[in-house]
Design a protein that fits this description.
454 residues, Four Helix Bundle (Hemerythrin (Met), subunit A), 60% helix
Length: 454
């Protein structure tokens, strides 16, 4: 999980306050020390940590706030202070003309990010293309082509070009047919005069409606200097932070961008195209505190499965035609969403279950789903179409187990989970339109918790 150590420390701090019989100076000092240590380890600016600490101490000693109200007040103050240092984030909406320019230094992940954002909007029915204007880095054009091919969006590059402006003029007319044009620019080891000049000229020529700075999370507080410099030089409109899943410095990068007055729009949380999340401070903090983030989960689901595919599956289910082939498609989609650990962290109430079962058991369950796919592949077309055949003939189960290299227990577990998923999908009538609400999601979570066997 993103900033898992910080999230664990924050949960302990809030629990310590909430469960305390008396809120005395000793307890407050203990909580503040824990919070300071966690924030500093996450590379948050020392001055910000000091400000939060002082606010909490002042509230705890304020005699005007009594009893349970004081505990609630301090927890809320802690929550609001953390939201403030994370920044406001920034929501981006597509307009009539959408040409987005991506800038940044070498190795920040511009090209990979373009692929992820392309996949994000393509899954939502938008016609997306990418244009390669990095004419300096060897193999930059080929990398962009491969990234775009992987997520199935169009890509325009000229491997022999030496002038970015010439390349844009070459493909400008073709880009007019697209809802969103993603432009990959050149980077440097540092923000020098030549890079500033090139970015400014490219941005003006392409008529960039957005200019996003891509930075990696592991630079920590240095992000403030970089964001401020790019903002002043080329007027960036937002930030994408990559590698948030693999560093303890992510807290520093997030808070540094907020200090620089530049909103974080997306965060990269893995290598897969689906591992890109809209940054929403409230939901981000909620997930760190173990309270889930339904909005992020639903957004991730729509990044994996096209709305039309969801509707088609629902229509088949309504007609009683949900089959093992459909189930296999669901398993493939779950695999694209990420690990069970990551998914459960987004569902309210699941964090406690996750803590009880442990990571080893979750990994075991994930391996089990792989075996289920092997079992499905070993079934005949008639068995995949009508799994009830297997319940009537034990010999079929034995044949499938032998053919897939699995056990008969694996096959029976598959049949049981197939029934459960068929029932769950029937409850998700509002999913295709994004109309699934918290009450419905909690109902699904309860069913999942009761019926999924680890």
């Amino acid at each position: 999980m993103i900033l898992e150590k910080l999230g664990s420390s924050l949960k302990k701090a809030t629990d310590k306050i909430a469960n305390a019989v008396f809120l005395d100076k000793s307890l407050v000092d203990s909580v503040v020390r824990d919070l300071q240590r966690a924030l500093i380890e996450a590379d948050v600016n020392i001055q910000l940590v000091k400000e939060i600490s002082e606010k909490i101490k002042q509230s705890a000693l304020d005699e005007r706030i009594k009893g349970i109200e004081k505990k609630e007040h301090i927890i809320k103050l802690m929550h609001d202070s953390l939201i403030k240092i994370l920044g406001k984030g920034r929501e981006v909406e597509l307009g009539k003309k959408n040409v987005w320019l991506f800038v940044g230094l070498y190795g920040a992940g511009k090209t990979t990010t373009i692929g992820k954002i392309g996949a994000y909007y393509s899954k939502r029915g938008k016609k997306v293309c990418a244009v390669g204007l990095d004419v300096h880095r060897p193999a930059a054009m080929e990398q962009l082509k491969q990234v775009c091919a992987n997520v199935k969006i169009d890509c325009f590059v000229d491997a022999n070009a030496s002038d970015a402006l010439v390349v844009w003029k070459e493909f400008k007319e073709k880009t007019k047919d697209y809802d969103l044009v993603l432009v990959d620019s050149a980077g440097r080891d540092a923000l020098d005069a030549d890079l500033i000049k090139e970015i400014k000229s490219v941005g003006k020529l392409v008529g960039a409606s957005e200019r996003f700075l891509v930075i990696q999370a592991d630079i920590g507080q240095t992000a403030k200097k970089q964001a401020a410099a790019f903002k002043e030089a080329v007027g960036i409109t937002g930030v994408v932070i990559t590698r948030m899943d693999s560093t303890a410095k992510g807290g520093g990068a997030l808070t540094a961008c907020a200090e620089a007055g530049v909103g974080v729009v997306w965060i990269g949380v893995g290598e897969k195209p689906v591992d890109l999340e809209l940054f929403e401070p409230e939901g981000f903090l909620s997930r760190m505190l173990g309270m889930g983030d339904l909005k992020a989960l639903m957004d991730k689901i729509h990044s994996v499965v096209d709305a039309k595919d969801i509707k088609a599956a629902q229509a088949r289910l309504a007609e009683g035609k949900f089959t093992m082939d459909d189930f296999k498609t669901q398993l493939d989609s779950m695999g694209q969403l990420g690990s069970f650990d990551k998914i459960m962290g987004m569902v309210p109430g699941m964090s406690k279950i996750k803590e009880k079962v442990g990571e080893d058991v979750l990994e075991s369950q994930q391996e089990k789903t792989k075996r289920w796919k092997y079992c499905i592949e070993s079934m005949t077309p008639a068995e995949r179409e009508n799994p009830s055949l297997l319940e009537k003939e034990t010999s079929r189960i034995q044949r499938i187990a032998h053919g897939s290299g699995c056990t008969t227990s694996d096959v029976r577990a598959l049949l049981k989970q197939f029934k459960m998923l068929k029932e769950m999908i029937g409850m998700q009538s509002g999913l295709a339109e994004g109309g699934i609400d918290n009450k419905m999601m909690m109902k699904l979570a309860r069913k999942f918790g009761k019926k999924m066997r680890f």
